[in-house]
Amino acid sequence: MGADNDSVLAAARAWAGARMALATVVSTWGSAPRPRGSHMLVHEDGRFEGSVSGGCVENDILAAAAAVIAGAPAMLKAYGVADSAAWEAGLPCGGRIEVLVQPVSPEGFPPALFEAISAARAMGQPFEVATDLATGRSGAGGFVNRYDPPRRLLIVGAVQIAQALAGLARELGISCAVIDPRARFLTSERFPGVMLDDRWPDEAVTALRPDPATAVVTLSHDSKIDDPALIAALAHPTAYVAALGSRRSHAARLERLAAAGVGPDDLARIEGPAGLDLGAIGPAEIALSIAAAMVRRFHA
Prior knowledge:
alpha/beta, Rossmann fold, 6-stranded parallel beta sheet, 5-stranded antiparallel beta sheet, 23% strand, elongated
């Protein structure tokens, strides 16, 4: 499941106790604007959070959700450019989607499932919910939605590239921590709104326990800082491990890590130089190349 439903899960916690309906993309064909598993949560007062199409069919989904909240049974809605209502509630991009709209109730999507999903993700564990599309009841059925842990980025080295990369992570909905034992580099003025960790990188990375939804990127250019962080990241099932530097410096890095006992399979996990080859120039473009490579790995 490639959908980002963090805001929906947060809204479910904030609206607990209210009558709600949950819309879910259960099938996609062609250039669908939102992936399978995407949610839109609708409050009884008309507020909503999330998206199932990026705006193309949301008005129609809101009407269906209001009916479900009022007592109508769950309904499966199909949308595509060939529909008679294409201009009112269609997908001009050319794709097709099916959306299940179900009540947030014991007969639909039990509210306790939101709590279970959030608890599992907080522990770094994925969680799966099965739904019967014929009845709209979650708990058993053929459609399975997987909720992965929140995506995280651990940046080692509070340098200028890190400032740009932290900002991109925030825009991508990826929580970010910057790790650097050098107090003059690691300041809230340079990294506003970012979690700052002044422990030695190996200690910090180990304590933060990177998982398959975590990226670790080293940027300091100081082997005393970067190498221990890489060793710690490789000791966990970290999704994306990358290190800034030239090909020559990366070759030297691999020699050092091999001498420190890192095996060849783990050495191969390190992307170096970090980021996609975009011909990037300057901190912002380099940060963009790293962010792109990180997102690609998250979706691999």
